[in-house]
Sequence to fold (313 residues):
Amino acid sequence: MILNDFITIDKTGLYCKYGNFYLDPKEPTTDAVISHAHGDHAIGGHSNVYTTLATSLFMKHRYRKNAAGNFHIQEYHKSFVLNDIHITFIPAGHMLGSAMILMEYQNTKYLYTGDYKLQPDATCEPIEFVTADVLITETTFANADTQHPPAEEEILKLNTTTSNIMLGAYVLGKSQRLINLINQYCPQRRILVHFSMMPFLKIYEEMGISLGKYEIYDRKVMKANPTQMVYMVPPMVFNSYSKAINVIRVFATGWKHLQKGNQIQLYVSDHADWNDILKMIQEIQPTEVWTNHGDGRELKTYFQDRLTVKSLN
Ligand SMILES: [Zn+2]
Ligand SMILES: [Zn+2]
Fold:
């Protein structure tokens, strides 16, 4: 039997009262189960964090001493028990270490996706499907007119110019995926990365992910080479260089409104699009879908009486 209040939302985040823990809480808690290392899911300061090894390494780098009281590192597919709830991490395909959180209680399975994607990504564990009675899914791009083109096709747009490129990308997940793609599909390009990205790239490599060639940014190198360079920077730096000269500005994102003003529009997203969410529902075969993180209304309309869709946020 599905418990309607198995997961509820409060100001701290998604709460499971039957196990007295939070999923990706936004404030410090006693027990936090964390899906992946992005800042809006993984904050510092929890007493106990249950997560994957890669996520713990990213958190330790970002939050240092304040990362967590204790990390309880969990492997994919290996169940553990937290206050009566059996929990299993399943790869989410979103970034290295990202996990969907399968919770079993009184013979009912609840699957919290965190963020996920179905597109292939050589820099993280591919998504895996399990069945569950309740699918608690993110709905970041849950509208029918959002369809992410294959990243392998998008990256070829960089080959339409020889000009130097300033490429804005999120530090975690996106930048590693892009370095790997550029090395494969634009091998004539030389990749320079902003220094703040280096520690995260190192963690990826320590975890056994080969990204290909890249170097730390050096102004002299960029100046001496008027073509075929890519300077990869985090979003804040990208925005602060809005008038950079002698470079083409490109920002990798699935959001249309963030593509405005960029000379090449690079639609690379690490989230599920509309069709991916439908495919996900097909694979998980839930009786109910609970949505959070974005707007679930279009999904609810789409399924009408065929499936219960309820919004948690
Ligand atoms: Zn994320
Ligand atoms: Zn997110």
Notes: The helical segments are 53-63, 151-154, 174-185, 198-206, 219-224, 235-240, 274-284, 297-303. Residues 36, 38, 41, 94, 115 surround zinc ion (ligand 1) (CB under 6 Å). The mean pLDDT is 96.
